[in-house]
Design goal:
Elements: H1 2-12, E1 18-26, E2 29-38, E3 43-47, E4 53-60, E5 64-69, E6 72-77, E7 82-87, E8 97-104
Length: 112
């Protein structure tokens, strides 16, 4: 049954996620963040170098994608690929961390 659902999805031409390689500037250097943006399902998957990977519901507008993850908010600008992260405990007016993303090639075909 599962193979039938996967085949139907492939045949239907459902859009694949967009993969981004992002980098945030931090006090101690740069933080690499891999992001998969899945607009049809209104989700974003964020993978950090620590091994933490989360999938969260996201808000999509014509110019940005915003995802809430516990006490932090991730923001991706869809026009210029700027990238940012803010924390709920930050003082008002603090811009948070900022960086940039680049679109990367989707992972190679996998067995599953």
């Amino acid at each position: 049954m599962v193979w039938w659902i996967l085949a139907a999805t492939a045949i239907s031409g459902a859009p694949a996620p967009t993969y981004l390689a992002c980098e945030l500037s931090q006090e101690g250097g740069k933080l690499s963040v891999d992001v998969a943006v899945d607009e049809p399902n209104q989700q974003v998957t964020i993978a950090l170098p620590t091994g933490r990977t989360v999938t969260r519901r996201a808000l999509f507008s014509p110019s940005e994608v915003r995802a809430l993850d516990d006490q932090q908010t991730w923001l991706i600008n869809r026009v210029d690929l700027s990238f940012g992260r803010t924390f709920a405990f930050m003082p008002e007016g603090d811009p948070g961390e900022s960086g940039v993303c680049r679109v990367k090639v989707a992972p190679a075909k996998r067995a599953f």
